C-alpha cells in the first residue's frame, strides 16, 4: 500500500539553511547538503527547500544548492520560493529538483500554472496555497487565500482555488494554514480535510506541527497524503525516524 | 571503457538519473546523457528514462529517429526502462486518446481511473499515484539482488502497465488494484517507479544493472 509521506522543509537564504537547524554531530548547521543527507538517512520521504532569498540576483545560488544536494541525496526534492517563469522551473529541474512549488505567481497569474504544467508535466508542479480562516466560529468554515506571508488577502476561497489549480494542471497541493503556521498547535484539520476531499491530486498538510500526534491527525483526520514540518525536526525535538515509528504504531502506513 | 547511454529525447529531467547512475557506476564506467544514435548504438548498456505524456514521448522519439535505435539496442544488450521509458516499450497506451508505442514487449498501458478506492477504508485514492509504495518481486531476477522483498520505491504516474504475457511480470504493486510495476525479458528490464529517487533500494537496483550481463 502507498505510504503517507513525511517531508521536512528547509528555509534557504542565499544558499544557507536558516532558522537554526540544530542537529548534534553536524559539522555545519547551515549546509543544505549535509542537512539533506541527514534527513535522508533518518528516512525522510522527500525534502522541500523554500528559497527565502530576498534579492533576485542571489537566486541563482539555489540552483547550485539543488545541484549539490541532488548529486548526494536520492529521494525527491521540491523547491519553492520566488518561482515566476517557466525558465525558473526548467533551471531547477535541470539542476536535479523533481518538483517546484508555485505560490504567489499562481495567484496573480493562474495561467502560469497551466503553462508550466504543459511544458514540464503536472508531476513536477506543486501549487502552494496559504489559507486563513475567514469565517466566524459559529459559521460554516471558510478559508481565503493569502499571499506575502499572510499579509495580503486575495478574496479567493481556498477550496475553490485548490480545485481550480488542479484543473490548471497542478500535480499536488501544498496546503499551509496561516492561522496555525508557527503556533505548534497542530494542522487546521478542517481546512486540510476540506481541500484534500475536494481534489483528486495528493495534498501535503503544512503549518502548525508541534507534536508527533499532529502528524497522525493530519493524515487520519485531515485526509492528507503527506505531512510537512520544519521546527519539530530541525531543533532535535524528534527525528523523522521517531515520527514514522509513532505513526506506524497508530496504524498509519509509512516507509520504515 | 564501459559506457552507459542514458537516452535523452527532451522528455523531463534526466539529470537525477545520470547522477544516481554515476553514484553507483563501477570505476571505468562512463555515463553519457545523449540523443545521438551512434553513441547509443555503441554503448554497452542503455537506460531509457522519461516522464510526461505517452504521445509527446513517442513524438519526441520519432522526431529524433530514436524509435528505431531503441528497438535495435533492446535486442542485444542490458536495457533498463524507467517510468515512461517502461510504458512506451509496450504496444499501446490509452493515454492521449490512444497512442501506439514501440511494441518491444507485449502489453498495454491503462488509466487508473477517476474512482480508484482503497481496499480497506473505501476512501478515494489520489491520482497520480505519488509516493513510496511496495514493489513485490515476482521473479528471482539479478536486478533484485540485495533488495528486500516488498521494499518501497518512489512512484509518480497516472497510468499503469498491463503485461501481454504473465511471464513478463517481474514485480507488482497494489494501488486500488494490483498492477505490474516491473517487467523483464532476456536483456530487458523495465520498472514503473523511479529507482534514481528511491534511496537505498533504488540505488541497489541501478548498481545491479551496471553489473548485469543481460541474462535472466
UniProtKB/TrEMBL annotation, chain A:
SUPFAM superfamilies: Ribulose-phoshate binding barrel. Gene3D superfamilies: Aldolase class I (3.20.20.70). Pathway: Amino-acid biosynthesis; L-histidine biosynthesis; L-histidine from 5-phospho-alpha-D-ribose 1-diphosphate: step 5/9. It catalyses: 5-[(5-phospho-1-deoxy-D-ribulos-1-ylimino)methylamino]-1-(5-phospho-beta-D-ribosyl)imidazole-4-carboxamide + L-glutamine = D-erythro-1-(imidazol-4-yl)glycerol 3-phosphate + 5-amino-1-(5-phospho-beta-D-ribosyl)imidazole-4-carboxamide + L-glutamate + H(+). Its main location: cytoplasm. One of its GO terms (molecular function) is lyase activity. Keywords: Amino-acid biosynthesis, Cytoplasm, Histidine biosynthesis, Lyase. Pfam families: His_biosynth (PF00977). InterPro entries: Aldolase_TIM, His_biosynth, HisF, IGPS_HisA/HisF, RibuloseP-bd_barrel. The active site is at 11, 130. Its EC number is 4.3.2.10. It comes from the Bacteria. Belongs to the HisA/HisF family. This is Imidazole glycerol phosphate synthase subunit HisF. The gene is hisF.
TrEMBL record, chain B:
Residues 6-210 form the Glutamine amidotransferase domain. It comes from the Bacteria. Its main location: cytoplasm. One of its GO terms (biological process) is L-histidine biosynthetic process. Pathway: Amino-acid biosynthesis; L-histidine biosynthesis; L-histidine from 5-phospho-alpha-D-ribose 1-diphosphate: step 5/9. It catalyses: L-glutamine + H2O = L-glutamate + NH4(+); 5-[(5-phospho-1-deoxy-D-ribulos-1-ylimino)methylamino]-1-(5-phospho-beta-D-ribosyl)imidazole-4-carboxamide + L-glutamine = D-erythro-1-(imidazol-4-yl)glycerol 3-phosphate + 5-amino-1-(5-phospho-beta-D-ribosyl)imidazole-4-carboxamide + L-glutamate + H(+). Keywords: Amino-acid biosynthesis, Cytoplasm, Glutamine amidotransferase, Histidine biosynthesis, Hydrolase, Lyase. Its EC number is 4.3.2.10, 3.5.1.2. The keyword Nucleotidyltransferase does not apply. The active site is at 83 (nucleophile), 194, 196. It is found in: Cytoplasm. Signal peptide: none annotated. GO terms for cellular component: cytoplasm. GO terms for molecular function: glutaminase activity; imidazoleglycerol-phosphate synthase activity; lyase activity. It holds the Pfam family GATase. Heterodimer of HisH and HisF. IGPS catalyzes the conversion of PRFAR and glutamine to IGP, AICAR and glutamate. The HisH subunit catalyzes the hydrolysis of glutamine to glutamate and ammonia as part of the synthesis of IGP and AICAR. The resulting ammonia molecule is channeled to the active site of HisF. This is Imidazole glycerol phosphate synthase subunit HisH.
